[in-house]
Amino acid sequence: MQSSGNSHIGNWFGMMKQAKELQGSGNECLYFVADLHSFTSKQDPELFAANQAAGVLDWLALVIDPQKSIFYRQSDIRAHTELLWYFSCLTPMGLMERAHSFKDKTAKGLEANVGLFTYPILMATDILLYDAEVVPVGKDQKQHVEMARDIAQKFNHHFGETFVLPEAQIKEAVQTIPGLDGAKMSKSYGNTIEVFADEKTMKKKIMSIKTESVDLGDPIDPDTCNVMALHRLFENPNLKNLEDQYRNGDIGFGDSKKQLFELVWDYFADARAKRAELASKPDLVEDILRSGAQKANAIAEAKLELVRSRFGLSGKHLV
Ligand code: AMP
After folding, report:
1. Ligand 1 pocket, 141 CB below 6 A?
2. Is residue 216 located within the same domain as residue 147?
3. CATH number of domain containing 172
4. CB-count exposure of residue 200 (10 Å: 0-12, 13-18, 19+)
5. pLDDT tens, position by position, 130-157
6. Whether residue 316 has pLDDT greater than 80
7. What confidence tens digit (pLDDT) does each residue in 11-35 have?
8. How far apart are CA 17 and CA 2, in angstroms?
9. Is 11 in the pocket of ligand 1 (CB under 6 A)?
10. In a domain, 31, yes or no
11. Which has fewest Cβ within 10 Å: 57, 196, 241, 259?
């Protein structure tokens, strides 16, 4: 996940929750903060450092058990940027030109740089360097995982078996989490609810969720309401009753939003406490990252050596 702002509930339900479940079921997991990816949108050193640190804390608070997963920052592993070049020379332009995410972002007027265009190739390095078999992602990333698979296939075909072909793991029920305006929740669209927003900000955001115009006392269809969609996601124990209230015109959007805020705030209470504790222990966080980077680097460097040799590069560097 890119470190380009604080984690939002689309990230949590779309991917992080699955990542946590995979970690708990005896798999060998590698998770990282994709800080290099964030340069595709902004190149601001202070903002970069702040977002990188926030990404690390969010992941440690919400997902990572350092005893079970290898956790690191992408930028600590140099193999990514080198492999990006080898893959770039093997990837047809047409493959990148088909990327929905690139097309959507440019269609919405976002300024595109070459990094944004080729970021699925950097993402392919994230996956393929470690022989990942399964990649938990939201629906928007399905195509990028398929591209990583295409690149692996092309490489293996050209040079012989080198990379494992990865599969995207997408949970049907939470493929695309809607944002405040009902469109896909995304940092790029400014419609997010951050998991670790302070109480006032979270309340304000939830109160600003877009709803249809209905007179007080009139029935509301619970199946078309953005607020209700979030009640469902957070498994409101009072759901049935709330649906009846909607249908009978016994509740307005304001009250429904207030209840939603309480639900969301409580849902993340433990993670919030854990994050605050970790934020007060920078040495502990640094130790976790160092240990993760060492383990990840050993795997990545071994794979990179193999790739270099496939291209005919000698293992010996003169400098
Ligand atoms: P990003 O924030 O774009 O780097 O995405 C990080 C991960 O969160 C990816 O696996 C995305 O598929 C997932 N994700 C982001 N936004 C959503 C959303 N609105 N619904 C479901 N998954 C999402």
Report:
1. yes
2. no
3. 3.40.50.620
4. exposed
5. 999 999 998 889 999 999 999 999 999 9
6. no
7. 999 999 999 999 988 899 999 999 9
8. 16
9. yes
10. yes
11. 241
Ligand 1 close to Cβ of residue 14 (< 6 A) = yes
CA 225 to chain centre: 25
State which H helix or E strand residue 169 sits in.
strand 167-169
In percent, the amount of the chain with pLDDT more than 90 equals 83
203 and 115 share one domain: no
CA-proximal residue: ligand 1, atom 10 (nearest): 137
* Whether residue 55 has its Cβ less than 6 Å from ligand 1: no
Residues 68 and 159 grouped into a single domain: yes
17 and 116 within one domain: yes
Same domain, 299 and 150: yes
Residues 82, 106, single domain; the answer is: yes
Q: Is the pLDDT of residue 36 over 90?
A: yes
Q: Whose CA is nearest to atom 11 of ligand 1?
A: 138
pTM above 0.90, yes or no: yes
Number of domains in the chain: 2
Find out whether the beta carbon of 233 lies less than 6 Å from any atom of ligand 1: no
- For the Cβ of 33 lying below 6 angstroms from any atom of ligand 1, the answer is no
Q: Are 272 and 43 in contact (CB under 8 A)?
A: no
Nearest ligand 1 atom to the CA of 176 is 20
> Quick one: pLDDT band at residue 97, thresholds 50, 70, 90?
very high
Residue 187 CA, ligand 1 centroid: distance in Å: 9
Instruction: Please state the three-class secondary structure of 123-163 as a single string.
Output: HHHHHHCCCCCEEECCHHHHHHHHHHHHHHHHHHHHHCCCC
The CA 185 to ligand 1 mean position distance, Å, reads 8
Pocket test for ligand 1, best of 4, 11, 119 (most atoms within 8 A of CB): 11
By residue range, what is the domain housing residue 214?
197-267
pLDDT > 80? residue 59: yes
Taking the C-alpha atoms of residue 217 and residue 260, their distance in angstroms, rounded to an integer, is 19
CATH code for position 205: 1.10.240.10
Say which residue, 187 or 85, is predicted with more confidence. 85
Q: Is 104 exposed, middle or buried (0-12, 13-18, 19+ CB in 10 A)?
A: middle
Give the pLDDT confidence of 251-300 residue by residue, as tens digits.
999 999 999 999 999 999 999 999 999 999 999 999 999 999 999 999 99
